Amino acid sequence: MRLLLIGAPGAGKGTQAVRIAENFGLTHISSGDLLREHVAQETAIGLTAKAYMDRGDLVPNTVVLDMLRKPVISAAEAGGYVLDGFPRTVEQAEAGYDVAKDLGVSVQVAVHIEVPREALVARIVERGLTSGRADDTEEVVTRRLDVYDEYTRPLLEYYAARERLITVNGDRPVEEVTWSVIVQLQQVQKQLEG
Ligand code: AP5
Description:
This protein is an alpha/beta fold. The chain has helices at 13-24, 31-41, 44-55, 61-77, 90-103, 117-131, 138-152, 154-161, 174-193; strands spanning 2-6, 27-30, 81-84, 109-114, 164-169. Helix content is 64%, strand content 13%.
């Protein structure tokens, strides 16, 4: 199965991606984690990405698309992926689709994790006490949330109209969110196999 997670900063994409990947035997690919590895290793990608990430802005499309191409193809060949953090814009979704469709690795289902803004800010600010992430401050998370509303939220309509879109309430204990996603994905899996 090939799926992606959509959710605002702090919605629990990374947390749930690990659990979903384990349950269905998929590979978890996080654009944010990959970018942070590049920043830590001071690669060309990392040197370009750092300033955007520190401000809470989106890294340019070409950088992200080039970075994800190989991991996505490998994961699809190995049984499927849970993509966390990509796409962030309709433009990215379309560019990703153009690359993926010819290779037969395009996404089959999008999972939206919905959490109210106040809860998101609280989660990120709390994580910022220990995460070491330069973007986990109240000021930057405000920017990240605005970027989500302006650029990423339109993806919900995009996926509802194209592939399957599942929405779950992410403002519950982690286990409950996971369970709700897994139950719905099991149904999708049956439809895909049938
Ligand atoms: P990225 O790393 O993708 O960050 P994000 O989307 O802002 O998401 P977070 O990692 O902050 O949150 P999450 O939804 O994964 O939640 P998590 O599970 O961690 O992106 C960072 C930056 O990289 C972007 O701003 C951008 O600059 C760049 N970037 C990345 N992808 C890009 C792309 N495609 N294009 C361009 N630029 C890109 O949980 C958050 C916290 O909440 C944790 O402490 C967790 O323990 C807690 N938590 C989780 N679930 C629950 C729950 N149910 N109840 C209570 N607490 C919970």
